[in-house]
Please model this.
Amino acid sequence: MKLLGVEIGAAPSQRGHLGRLLERNAALRDVFAGDPKLARQLRRLQKWQSKRLLRSHADLHANPRYRRAVEFFFNELYSGGDARRRDTDLIKVQAAMERLLPREGLKALCLAIELETLSQELDADLARALPTAPITVPRYAEAYRAAGRAADRRRQIELTSEVGAYLDGVVRRPMVRALVRLARAPAHAAGFGRLHEFLERGLLAFETMHGAREFLETIGSRELRASARLFAGEPDPFEFEARTKRTRRPKASTG
Model:
């Protein structure tokens, strides 16, 4: 169906896709339900990784242009605070969402859930590979190599860029963005207001940037480099020590 020239709802071949993604994502949240020790390890790991991501991209977070986008990707998209509740609500109403949302907004949402699902799978593998000792960069790197799945790690980074590109595309098309806003009241009435708000926060983050290409390329290139260094066994995979040395290096005298 088209509204004001914009495709609304999922394509026939994609109907039910969002529901399948949500069910898989929700199931992964209880992957360690029978093992409290691994469940605690997973929570520690996810907190550590969130801090690591913010540290790796601290310069972007310090830039007002990119701050909202950094927080959306690393705080909300990656293990959002009420994600479990959001999943439960969404499974009930995913069919309505597939009918009401503009197709591009729905695609961005599906990619976001796919990214979250893949991240949960990779986190579970890492949690199994980590020792019970406190998480450090060397221990994390060793577990990262032991867990493997290099192709999935690349896909995880690619999905980040794909989600961002779709969100950026929506905000660049005022009619599509307007229709997402117009769907706010029907979304709340239909019972999927929480996920619609999640989508709108992502769109707001990209509106603030006024162009996301540099942001997405920077994050993608840094994360691909970090992943390659982790698999290669580099001693400073995230280059934190190298960055600290550059910061402390005295300026050359000009006198």
The chain has one domain: 14-237. The chain has 13 helices and two strands.
